[in-house]
């Protein structure tokens, strides 16, 4: 039996579980809100082309209106100033979109403090318990934040002082970019940076360091509680938008039972 035939058999039998980590994409999907004078991307909307009517008697279809960075999406290096000469989403090799996933369970810490910051010690603690982070891994932060995804205000969690959402500290972002050969960082929140990241030095350090190092971001994930700390395989499928700085993506994990 070939490797692929064996994998297909295990998926069919359920011994390998396929878990969808993607948030449903609709007009209700939360979208990042930047303060003036910065411009914002748009929510998803569908424009009807035909609906079994005179414009198309046997078919229904829609035009899609949305931004590259809406819903569960991939950030390509070209998205950020530090990676502006880097890969656009259509240029990413397919082999970099498939890799091992490791999960840091930070849900209890975030429940106690929505401004919680990941630090290098959390990553080193994960390695002490689970072994070295594999080369090519996606580092996924389980925070429980996806439970807020049906309520944009709760999901963005902003007040007069700005948004309050978890993410990596400056030191953790630098560590992930430079100390391990990871593929990227995945989060449950609207972006890979913490809500307080605009006031950090440098600002938005996850974008600054990771995209500047040719690594990727993956946002608005769900169902991370269904993944083990180590051992899952992650497949990320963005649209190959020519010149795109990112794309809505389907994120799927394969987990051995």
TrEMBL record:
<protein>
    <submittedName>
        <fullName>Cyclase family protein</fullName>
    </submittedName>
</protein>
<dbReference type="Pfam" id="PF04199">
    <property type="entry name" value="Cyclase"/>
</dbReference>
<dbReference type="InterPro" id="IPR037175">
    <property type="entry name" value="KFase_sf"/>
</dbReference>
<dbReference type="InterPro" id="IPR007325">
    <property type="entry name" value="KFase/CYL"/>
</dbReference>
